[in-house]
TrEMBL record:
This is 4-carboxymuconolactone decarboxylase. Residues 1-23 are annotated as: Disordered. It comes from the Bacteria. GO terms for molecular function: peroxiredoxin activity. Pfam families: CMD.
């Protein structure tokens, strides 16, 4: 087993490599248009955050081999529902479709979340998902 160095990421990659991989995965999952908007809206104040999510969320977590993107989308949708992160939930419904989840699978994820996250949270999720999936 390779030791994990949090200052470098996975032991075999530099921060720059993690960021490049993260940007590739981020674009594949969220779309070029979404990432281009996020990058265009980056300011000096938000630049470190954009770098963090590109390197860590997308370059280290979403690019790991342990789960496929469909599974990562299912987990992410549930987490967004649990946290009530509705803007992110909307974005990740679109990403889930890009990752191959069907409308019925997204519906089942929201139904499952009604039991474990709350009926009010699932109610909000259904409203948002219906809007996104109707687009």
């Amino acid at each position: 087993m390779t030791e994990f160095d949090s200052t470098v990421g996975r032991a075999d990659r530099t921060n720059e490599q993690a960021r490049a991989e993260g940007m590739r995965v981020r674009r594949e999952v969220l779309s070029d248009a979404h990432v281009d908007r996020a990058e265009a809206n980056t300011t000096e104040f938000t630049a470190d955050f954009q770098d963090l999510i590109s390197r860590y969320a997308w370059g280290e977590i979403w690019s790991r081999p342990g789960l496929d993107r469909r599974m990562r989308s299912a987990v992410t949708l549930t987490a967004m529902i649990a946290g009530g992160y509705w803007e992110e939930f909307e974005m990740h419904v679109r990403a889930a479709v890009r990752n191959g989840l069907t409308n019925d699978e997204i519906k089942e994820i929201v139904l499952q979340s009604a039991i474990y996250c709350s009926v009010p949270a699932a109610n909000s999720a259904f409203k948002i998902a219906a809007k996104v999936l109707g687009d």
